[in-house]
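Thread: Modeling a multi-component assembly for a lab meeting

Hi all, long-time lurker, first post. My supervisor asked me to bring a structural picture of a complex we are working on to next week's group meeting, and I have zero experience with this. I have the sequence lines for every component (358 residues in total). Could someone generate the structure of the whole assembly? Inputs are pasted exactly as I received them:
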Amino acid sequence: MFKFLTRLFPGEKSGDVAKERLQLVLIHDRNDIAPEKLEALKVDMVRLLKKYLEIDETGIKMNLERRSRSVALVADIPLKSSQKQVRGRKKNG
Amino acid sequence: MDCRIIVITSGKGGVGKTTTTANLAVALANEGYRVVAIDGDVGLRNLDVIMGLENRIVYTLVDVIEGTCRLNQAMIRDKRTENLYMIPTAQSRTKDAVSSEQMLEICGQLRNEFDFVLIDSPAGIEAGFRNAAAGADEALVVTTPEVSAVRDADRIIGLLESMEKAPISLIINRIKPEMVKRGEMLAIQDVLDILAVDLIGAVPDDESVVTSSNKGEPLTFSNGSLATKAFLNIAKRICGNEVPFMDLSGNQKGFFSSLRRIFGN
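Re: Modeling a multi-component assembly
Sure thing. I ran the full set together rather than chain by chain. Output:
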C-alpha cells in the first residue's frame, strides 16, 4: 500500500512517509476494537437511530480517528428526508 | 527541596536510556543537587560501564533487597563530582530478583537523602519496566526519530499514564539535522504531533556519545559537543529553568560551520 503510494508520488520524502505510517499504526495500537465488534455496533446503532430518524443506511461511515493522545469513533450518518447529516462522536478511548 | 524520583524509559531498546540517565545524573549533580542514579535493568546492567564505575561495584541493589548489605553500602560515590551516587544492579540474576514493592521501599529510603533519584529502566513493557517505574513519580521517555522507536514510546506513554506518573516528558535522541532538512527524517514537530507529550529535550546524533561511552566518562563532565549542550539543557529544564531549544532543523545559518568548529575539522 505504501510502496504503491510512494510510487504514485515519487516526490514524497521518507520523513513524511514515516509520519503517515506512524499515524495509521497508532490508531490500531491505541485501541483493541475488532472490526467485527465495530460492525455489530453499527448494526445496533442503526437499529436505535431508525426509531427516531430516517437514515440512509448505505451512506453510513464509521471510522476510528486519531486525537492527540486518544482515538475517537466518528460516525457519519446521512439522513434520507433532508440533505443534513448528523455527525455524532460516540466514543473516546 | 523535595526529592524527585524520575524513571528514564523508552519501550524500545538501544535508543539511549542509559546514556541519558548517566548524563543527566552528572549534569544535575554539577548543578549542586544530591543525585543518585539506579540501574533498573537486572541481568543486563549497563549504567555502571556507561558511568565508568564498573570496577567499584561491591554490592548491588539485589544485595540490599536480600539483606546482604545496607542500602548505603551499595551506593557507589562518583568521585569526579560532588553528591553523585550510583546504585548498580545484579548482572547474574533475572528480573524477578526485584519486585515493585521492594523498589518502592528502596525509593522511599532514598527520598530522605537525595534531591534527585534517576532510575534507568530496562527496555520492554514487562515486569522489569514496571518495577523500575514503580517507585518513580515522574517519567522521561526517550525516543529516536524512527517509526519503531516512536511507536514503542507511544505504548510506554500510555502505560505511564495509566500508572499515573506525572509529568511525562519526552527526549528525542539522535536527531540528524541534515537528514531532517532533506525531509528524510521525522522532525521534532512530527514526533510531538504524534505522541502529544511535552518535549524536554532534543539531542543531536553525535560521535562524542560513542567516544564518551568508550571511556566511561559521561559527556556532561566536560563541555564541548552539541550533545553535551543538549543534555545540560535538559538538566536545566528539569530544574524548572526555561532554556530555548537548540535548532536541529538543519536550516539555521552557520550550523555546519559551528559543527566544524566544535569537531575541529
